[in-house]
Amino acid sequence: MKKVIVVGGGISGLCSAYYLVKDGWEVTVLDQTKIDSGTSYINAGYITPSHFVPLAAPGIITQGLKWMLNSSSPFYMKPRWDMDFFKWALLFKKSATASNVERALPVLKELNLKSRTLYEELLASHDFDFHYERKGVLMAYCSEKSEKEEHEVAERAIKEGLEVSILSQEDLRKVQPVLSDQVRGAVHYKCDAHMTPNHFMEELKGWLQEQGVGFKLGQKVEDFSIKGKQITSLKTHDNNYEADEFVLASGSWTSKLAATLGLKIPIQGGKGYSMDVKRPTGITLPTILVDARMAITPMDGFTRFAGTMEFSGNNDTIQKKRVMALSNAVKAHYRDFTILPEEQDSATSGLRPVSPDGLPFIGKTTKYKNLTLAAGHAMMGWSLGPITGKLVSQEVNGSKTSMEMALLSPERFH
Asked: What is the pLDDT of residue 66?
């Protein structure tokens, strides 16, 4: 049996392991953490065909400049001297064009739709159980500007064949009465679904262990051994791991790891915050508060409040000011509901791996015959977990992929 090592135990890494096991590989998952926290565990749990507009889009730079030095804004860049970040920011600026949106849109839509189908196939397989609901996601807005922008995106979504409806304030009250009068209306993306990420991750990890997948935790990759165009092994501080194939799915750390292999994979960690409320909230529909850039999800046994994008380096530091901004947004958007101080104190953070053009890096490289990359999914990492794993397994096997891969090439910025 051929061996494959997957570096990274987040959603992309574990889904890759799942499909590789199904294809008969002997799989080892290696991670520098205990695989029990981070963005794959604390995200909003959305499966989002609605998110077909890439992060790098016209207007994002202007809006970002207004917000970026305000440490409590939805989009914050901490001032720091970091050449990798400067280079990434320049590539991001170059990518934030209408032509990039049109190029990326069909790819993101296809990825999300295929991934939603795979989640539903996973559920039907009964390999393991998990929470999955297809109630859609509300894009709720307060300002006239946001209303106009969301209606334009909704019109495009309808043209793209997605199931969408526009709700007036009166319509919205009928389906989600807990929203405040400040909310003018919403776009309901019925094509979307939601899950409970931490429960899914634990169930998937348990299934993989039952199939004989080895988990090497607390193992930080320090170097690779190369022979010609093949990686023969990777080294941690106390071990050497050999395999026939290697998968690099290490999220926001992928860029630095790839650099040790002479590969330029521009990724920056965009920190998000998350709070879980385990008491009744009255919230029944997943909702994105457009003006606050915040997501609320009724999960299995609790409600999750998540949001913000913070570029401050790869760390898990919690800024109380940003947690308070999220709490204030909830208070403004929902009637008679406030996140309590002790719930704010339990806030956690995770790093979304953000590529410069809003598309993930998935596929083989020309430099190494036995290396496949899977990273850079930004806010769609959870949504794209299964399709990423499926494409990785197809690449590793050298079989025909489920979709065209050119725009996802790991070497597109070389």
From this structure: 60
Dig out the tokens for 209 from the structure: 């262990």
Residue 15 contacts by C-beta under 8 Å, 6 or more apart in sequence? 204, 385, 386, 388, 389, 390, 392
What SS3 state is found at 383? coil
Select from 408, 406, 27 the least CA-distant residue to 246.
27
Looking at residue 68, its pLDDT comes to 62
Closest to 186 in 3D by CA, of 219, 216, 153, 162? 153
For residues 321 and 304, give the distance between their C-alpha atoms in angstroms, rounded to a whole number. 19
Q: What is the phi/psi pair of residue 38, to 5°?
A: 100, -175
pLDDT at residue 20, as a whole number: 98
Strand partners, 223: 235
CA angle 123, 124, 130 (to 5 degrees): 20
Average pLDDT over residues 320-335: 95
What the block records as the tokens of 192 is: 């979307």
DSSP state, residue 179: B
Looking at residue 365, what is its pLDDT? 95
Is the backbone of residue 405 left (phi > 0), alpha (psi -120 to 50) or beta?
alpha
CA distance 224 to 229: 12
Using DSSP, state whether 13 is helix, strand or coil. Answer: helix
The two three-digit tokens of residue 47, written as one number: 């499966």
Structure tokens of 51?
């998110």
The answer to whether the CB of 243 falls within 8 A of the CB of 47 is no
Per the CB < 8 A criterion, the answer to whether 80 and 312 are in contact is yes
